[in-house]
Amino acid sequence: MAVPPEVGTRRLAHDLVRAIAPLLLFLAFALGALSGALAETLQGVVVAIQDGDTLTLLDDSKTQHRIRLAGIDAPEKGQPFGQLSKEGLSGLVFLHDVAVEWKKRDRYGRVVGKVMLGGRDVNLAQVEAGLAWHYLDYAREQSPTDRGLYSQAETRARDANLGLWRTPSLWLPGRFESRSAGPDSDVLALPAPAQGVVWGDARL
Predict the structure, then answer these.
(1) With a cut of 50, which residues of the chain have pLDDT below it?
(2) What's CA 202's distance to the chain center, in Å?
(3) What domain range includes position 66?
(4) I want to staple 150 with a disulfide (CB 3.0 to 4.6 A). Which of 78, 91, 102, 134 is the partner?
């Protein structure tokens, strides 16, 4: 008995849907994962500098956003080079329009992102100048390209004894705050530079 043409068409369409359904499901999952991985962009004018890795941005709606520069860690206030690091960041971005590429907020509610000024990575510039460390604790959150660039920049700054690398024993900021806990607190000191390198910075 012959199958009516419309029945054959319906069967063909049904078989086609069954065949491509797994592919459609995979594509939907992949697109969802990709959209979640993509960074958002926040644009505005830098209106304040808190320290060498934190600033305040004012967007077009006049909303202020506290920005924590991703991938780097700068000396705290009261540490050697803390003021110099702040001034370095200020010289780069204060009152300039910037774009912040970000994916997360930290526990203080700050936007954690990469600050871009005219195509220049400001976070990386701080490391290149010896005004911040490459923040290894969060390096896994960077792209492989950025991770490599920041690591190489820190190595060059250290080898050239730039900025904070001129101080023989400078605490990383997170450990610097723990010194008040006593002499047995978990303090990480950086290795001393080559003999003959100037201690500190006369401008501080």
Answers:
(1) 28-36, 175-204
(2) 30
(3) 40-181
(4) 134
CA gyration radius for the chain?
A: 25
pLDDT score, position 169: 63
197 in a structural domain: no
Residue numbers annotated as active site: 68, 76, 110
Which has the closest alpha carbon to 143: 109, 92, 101? 101
Domain count across the chain: 1
Map residue 64 onto helix, strand or coil.
Answer: strand
Q: Give burial (CB, 10 Å; 0-12/13-18/19+) of 81.
A: buried
Is residue 150 in some structural domain?
yes
Q: Tell me the CATH number at 120.
A: 2.40.50.90
Residue 143 lies in a domain: yes
User: So what's the pLDDT on residue 30?
Assistant: 46
**Degrees (nearest 5) of the Cα angle 198, 148, 100?**
90
Q: Extract the tokens encoding 42.
A: 């926040």
**Cα separation of 120 and 85, whole Å?**
18
